[in-house]
TrEMBL record:
The name this protein goes by in its record: Glyoxylase I family protein
Signal peptide: none
Source organism of the structure: Conyzicola nivalis
Pfam families membership: Glyoxalase
PANTHER family linked to this entry: FOSFOMYCIN RESISTANCE PROTEIN FOSX, LYASE, PUTATIVE-RELATED-RELATED
Keyword rRNA-binding: no
Listed NCBIfam families: PRK11478.1
Length: 128
């Protein structure tokens, strides 16, 4: 088997428009296109970061709530590499985005911090 790369990441939102705004306006993803899937009563938007890394943003009529604490089995979080974690946290503060305090990766010593999308999905900033 030879996996070539990650093709896309799928995120289900409780409020599609609010999450689309968050990922595009706040985080800077490029909005590529969207489709309404009538049979599923669901929107699917395609967003790109830096010309790649596609995020498919979905809506569904009544999605289940994501388990919080203690952490549940499954994909834990999505991490973004940034040049300046502290500066990025200040930008998130200006947008009113909830985040944890700056900390250091115990294995690499690099700066990192977790923040949360409108549905509480954990996202990570990791300094290059």
């Amino acid at each position: 088997m030879k996996l070539r790369r990650v093709h896309h990441i799928a995120i289900i939102a409780t409020d599609y428009e609010r999450s689309k705004d968050f990922y595009t306006r706040v985080l800077g993803f490029e909005f590529l296109e969207e489709f309404y899937r009538e049979e599923r009563e669901s929107w699917m938007g395609k967003l790109a970061l830096d010309g790649g890394y596609i995020v498919e943003l979905f809506s569904f009529p009544t999605p289940a709530v994501r388990p919080g604490w203690p952490e549940a089995t499954g994909l834990r979080h999505l991490a973004f590499e940034v040049d300046d974690v502290e500066g990025t946290l200040a930008e998130l503060d200006a947008e009113g985005v909830r985040h944890e305090e700056l900390r250091f990766d115990p294995n690499t010593g690099k700066k990192m911090a977790f923040f949360f999308d409108p549905d509480g999905l954990p996202l990570e900033l990791y300094e290059a």
